[in-house]
Amino acid sequence: MSFNNLDTLYRQVIMDHYKNPRNRGSIDGNPMTVDMNNPTCGDRIQLQLLIEDGHVQEAKFDGEGCSISLSSASMMTQAIKGKPVDEALKMSELFSELMQGNDVDEGDIDLGDIEALQGVSKFPARIKCATLAWKAMEKGVDEEKQD
């Protein structure tokens, strides 16, 4: 597939997640909730996680922001749901490397649609948009471990 076709496909995936976000909303009960924002551009996200027995049982988000920020949150919640917390954190580490423009060895971890965001690494001002939900997940997991 040519670069232009791949770029077009990635843009379509990003816009699909932006226009039809997966896991947008809130979790019933008493989920762990993390609010984060990017003051540079105004993106804000509220991430809710339900972690039981070391697994992310449920992940939902709400917020406002650009297509990169909200599509990344949609992709992330979809990718980490049902996964062991350690694997979700590994995905976050791989995503961070991807955003820094580094080649990543996914090993046994499938990033799926998340790879569509790799082009963001060429736009440093947008990296914080793409990583906002991931930083919220890391913060939430850290807080959960401390309780």
From TrEMBL:
GO process terms (BP): iron-sulfur cluster assembly
Stored InterPro entries: NIF_FeS_clus_asmbl_NifU_N (IPR002871)
GO MF annotation, one: iron-sulfur cluster binding
NIF system FeS cluster assembly NifU N-terminal domain sequence ranges: 10-129
Gene3D superfamilies for the chain: 3.90.1010.10
Recorded family membership: Belongs to the NifU family.
Name of this chain's protein: SUF system NifU family Fe-S cluster assembly protein
Protein species of origin: Halobacillus trueperi
